[in-house]
Design a protein that fits this description.
This protein has 439 residues and is an alpha+beta fold. It contains 14 helices and 13 strands. The strands form 2 sheets. Strands 2, 3, 4, 5, 6, 7 and 8 form a 7-stranded mixed β-sheet that branches. Strands 1-13-12-11-10-9 form a 6-stranded mixed β-sheet, sandwiched between helices. The longest helix is centred in the middle third of the chain and has 23 residues. The radius of gyration is 22 Å and the shape is globular.
């Protein structure tokens, strides 16, 4: 059987009943009403379908673009800010938000493959930043926009200082849109929600959204409320920090290291990525996401001050780690129809234990927490496992080794094989050589 790299570094695996009971209580306390985010309010009609039609997934090309954007985000935050000020959660009137960087004033980072005209900031960016400013009571903020064309050449970084004139009116607009969005969710229909900015621009929901008959979108932050000024000084500061750190606007995330052989195949120029279009797989995903999302929301919002997200990185790897009460915490699902014996967890959940080990090594924590949702067992069963690791420097060295091999473009067979369950449906089998290969 495929064995986790980290199995030999596991010191102990314990079940934490206390946190399990607390999470169960927090899920029940959430009730039927889900918290609405600032992102929902920017384009509420698109957000409606994002919540109600999880069967509609982005194309492989779009998913890759989104993944790259997330990596750029993490590298920027890690390079130009510190853990203390990155990814700050804020709330206002049952609306939640996550500010990319918040020290003296909100800073919103954006990556895009669509280049706007010089000096013209996308209205949705101003809406989002303006709502963060209204939530924090600070009438100024910054936008940092990184344009990265799909070709990979000619990337441009632009920074803007934004002054806002009427925070009270922005708050009123937020509440009005929050109520409109909640009514749509309660009724199960987007009727009344405005047309979104992606109408006619290859939106994932364009075949079902009905934007052509929707009322026009009115911005929460009108043009006369915001004064936008290009900030060359901030651009120079960011570029200098990027140069000094050696950071690049591309890189790897932790999941690339869990299945590094597959990652190596996928980054080859002639790689062909196939999508799983089976209806059965989509239906399983829909069912799985319901309780999974309730569990993650309870973790994030059910314990004031208990949850935070921190950036981690090594070489060109950049990602974020969830911390719950000071312990790196991973929430995952499994289709196992039985509870796994905790002593067998490193073998039967090898890829998840590896992920947690890598996270702990990067976060410099000898203790990690795996919250595992058994979606095939009735009544939404989940377990909270406390996993202790030894010899973090050696685990970290393995992280660096895998990143270095991927950076160098090493042949896939030089990288660790993937688990057997992946081999059975992998687009690169059988020539990948993973089948029956020991760890």
């Amino acid at each position: 059987m495929y064995e986790a790299f980290s199995a030999k570094f596991v010191r102990n695996v314990d079940a934490n009943r206390t946190i399990k009971d607390e999470l169960t209580a927090a899920i029940r306390a959430q009730g039927a009403r889900r918290r609405i985010s600032v992102t929902d309010l920017v384009n509420p009609r698109q957000a409606f379908f994002r919540r109600t039609r999880p069967d509609i997934q982005p194309s492989a090309e779009r998913a890759q673009t989104m993944m790259t954007g997330t990596g750029v985000h993490a590298q920027f935050e890690r390079t130009i800010s510190t853990e203390e000020f990155a990814e700050q959660f804020v709330t206002y009137e049952d609306i939640v938000g996550k500010i990319d960087i918040y020290e003296d004033a909100p800073v919103e980072l954006k990556t895009t493959s669509f280049q706007d005209r010089d000096g013209v900031v996308r209205p949705s960016y101003l809406d989002q930043l303006g709502m963060y400013c209204a939530m924090t009571g600070i009438p100024r903020g910054h936008l940092v926009v990184y344009y990265t064309p799909r070709s990979g050449d000619g990337a441009v970084l632009s920074a803007y200082a934004v002054e806002l004139s009427n925070l009270a009116e922005i708050r009123t607009g937020m509440i009005r849109r929050r109520d409109l969005f909640q009514r749509a969710l309660d009724a199960g229909t987007p009727s009344g929600l405005p047309q979104c900015e992606w109408y006619g621009r290859r939106c994932d929901y364009q075949d079902v959204c009905g934007c052509e008959a929707a009322p026009p979108l009115e911005r929460v932050v009108r043009a006369d409320m915001a004064t936008v000024t290009r900030d060359p000084g901030l651009e120079d500061q960011i570029n200098e920090k990027l140069r000094r750190s050696g950071a690049r606007p591309t890189g790897y995330r932790i999941h690339h290291l869990l299945f590094p052989r597959k990652t190596a195949y996928r980054q080859q120029p002639d790689a062909v990525v196939e999508e799983d279009e089976s209806s059965e797989a989509r239906l399983k995903e829909i069912r799985r996401r319901g309780f999974y999302e309730a569990l993650t929301k309870a973790l994030q919002y059910g314990f004031p001050g208990g949850f935070r997200s921190i950036p981690v990185g090594l070489r060109t790897l950049a990602d974020r780690v969830s911390m719950f009460r000071g312990v790196p915490t991973l929430v995952r699902t499994t289709g196992f129809r039985r509870m796994i014996d905790r002593d067998r967890l490193p073998q039967e959940m090898s890829w998840n234990v590896d992920r947690l080990a890598f996270i702990c090594a990067l976060a410099e924590s000898a203790q990690g927490r795996l919250i595992l949702y058994y979606n095939a067992i009735p009544d939404d069963k989940f377990m909270v496992y406390e996993i202790g690791f030894k010899d973090l420097p050696t685990i970290r060295a393995e992280v660096e080794r895998r990143v270095a091999l991927l950076e160098s473009g090493a042949a896939p067979d030089k990288l660790p094989p993937c688990p057997a369950w992946m081999y059975e449906t992998c687009e690169f089998a059988p020539h990948c050589g993973c089948g029956g290969v020991p760890a």
